[in-house]
Amino acid sequence: MVIYHCSKKIAIRNEEVNGMKLKEFRLSKGLTQEELARKLGYTLSLVAKIEQGQVRPSRKFMDRTKNVFPEVVIDDLFF
Q1: If we measure between CA atoms, which residue out of 28, 40, 26, 43 comes closest to residue 68?
Q2: Given Cys at both, which of 29, 41, 53, 58 links 19, Cβ 3.0 to 4.6 Å?
């Protein structure tokens, strides 16, 4: 994906885009990273790394997200 910032072309990796989507979702639910991590049964560190695009979410992470938040469309959030 390519975006423009201050007339400069910036390439963004898919992991970063997915991380931004997860962060937007988390904020829309009024949750902190720590609260989301606790609800999903993961560490704060992992949630932060996914949001920052440093780590791709595992299938298990996606499944847990869907189980805890049934309204989530996994393809929209993670792909």
Answers
A1: 40
A2: 53
Tokens of 15: 């992991």
Q: What are phi and psi of 30, to 5 degrees?
A: 70, 30
Running DSSP on this structure, what letter comes out for residue 55?
S
In total, the chain counts a number of residues equal to 79
CA atoms within 13 A on the CB side of 8: 5
- Residue-level pLDDT, tens digit, the chain, 79 residues: 544 555 555 555 778 888 999 999 999 999 999 999 999 999 999 999 999 999 999 999 999 999 999 999 999 998 8
